[in-house]
Amino acid sequence: MLMIASTAGQFLKKSGHKYLQEAGLTVLIGMIAGVCFKLMHVEFFFTSLTSHFSGIFVIVLLPPIIFESGYNMNKKYFLKNGGTVLMYSFLGTFIAVFSSAFMFWLAGEMHLAHKFTWQEAFAFGSLISATDPVSVLACFKEMDADVDLYANIFGESIFNDAIAIVMYNIVMTTAGTQDSFGEEMWIGVKQFLLIFIGSVFMGGIYALLIAFVLKRQSSYINDTSTLRGLTGRQKTLTVKNAVLTEISMMITSPLIAYFVAGGFSLSGIVSILINGMFLNYYAKPNISKPAS
Predict the structure, then answer these.
(1) DSSP single-letter state for residue 112
(2) pLDDT digits (tens, 9 = 90+) for 132-165
(3) 92-126, pLDDT tens digit by residue?
(4) Sign of the C-alpha dihedral, residues 276, 280, 283, 284?
(5) CA-to-CA distance for 153 and 160, rounded, in angstroms?
(6) Domain with 129 in it
(7) d(CA 194, CA 201)
(8) How many distinct helices (H) and strands (E) make up the chain?
(9) Which residues contact 66 (CB under 8 A, 6 or more apart)?
(10) Helix (H/G/I), strand (E/B), else coil: 67
């Protein structure tokens, strides 16, 4: 399916179609494939596959995606519009979650849909409130849109995923309690602040530690006395090992932050995102050109 979608996307770009983007074409291919598989009666196979794929996605596929978003973020325009991005991410996501949950709960109370508790309504609102404007950002790149507009939408799309996931986890953990609505809301706010601040700290501290180690290592390698007395082959091996060490540290740092944050019941998404941003800003200037 991925190969078909990728190939069809390349043909779509070459055709210069104005009204259908690659993301939309991928959705259409997925819908058609879903209908075909439904007619083939292979639900059991895909149910079993999905149960195994969810773990692979969370452990193997998701961390590199989030890390790449934070690491390759345009720092200049992101920091310039940081206040706007955070306002859209936090306030906008909160408004979307509360409004969606209220409408869902109200529809149940009016017998227009199945009746749910407010916890279930908030869980549903958290799930659908995080938007990912992939198609819009792809259009912006092709149109060479305003960089501030791109930074606002891109930054908001990154943070709202993490915020929505944190809010969903909070709702699910407080669903079994017998506290009042106000008490559960206060508990949720405290847990959200604790999880978010702890995740930011976890991602940032690992990145700063790696940046410090890489700076010491670069000064060690750049010191001419270190390679003095070595043969040409030994110098090459020493530099090669240093480059491999730099790459290994840059790869393992976000993974460690991600899994440690998850071990402490924090948000691995927020942690690995902040780790990527800090590594790009503090650690990247300290690594050698071959490693970068």
Answers:
(1) S
(2) 666 666 677 667 778 888 788 877 877 777 677 7
(3) 888 888 898 899 888 888 888 888 888 888 888 88
(4) positive
(5) 10
(6) 73-176
(7) 10
(8) 13, 0
(9) 158, 269, 272, 273, 276
(10) helix
pTM of the model: 0.73
Residue 224 lies in a domain: no
* Residue 281 backbone phi and psi in degrees, to 5: -85, -40
**CA atoms in the 13 A half-sphere facing the CB of 237:** 5
Which tokens in the block code for residue 212? 């410090």
Query: Into how many domains does the chain fold?
Result: 1
CA dihedral (40, 45, 51, 57) in degrees, to 10, reads -70
Predicted local confidence at residue 137, as pLDDT: 67
Tens of pLDDT along 10-60? 787 777 766 777 777 888 888 888 888 778 877 677 677 666 676 777 777
Q: Identify the three-state secondary structure at position 65.
A: helix
Per the domain annotation, does 169 fall within a domain? yes
- For residues 146, 149, 150 and 155, what is the CA-based torsion angle, rounded to 10 degrees? 160
H or E segment to which residue 166 belongs: helix 147-174
What residues contact 184, with CB distance under 8 A and at least 6 apart? 119, 174, 177
CB 267, CB 196: distance < 8 Å: yes
Question: What does the alpha-carbon distance between residue 25 and residue 12 come to, in Å, rounded to a whole number?
Answer: 9
In a domain, 110, yes or no: yes
Residue whose C-alpha is closest to residue 155's, from 261, 74, 56, 262: 74
Q: Are 1 and 33 in contact (CB under 8 A)?
A: yes
Residue 118 lies in a domain: yes
Displacement of CA 59 from its chain's centroid (Å): 13
How many CB atoms within 10 Å of residue 239? 14
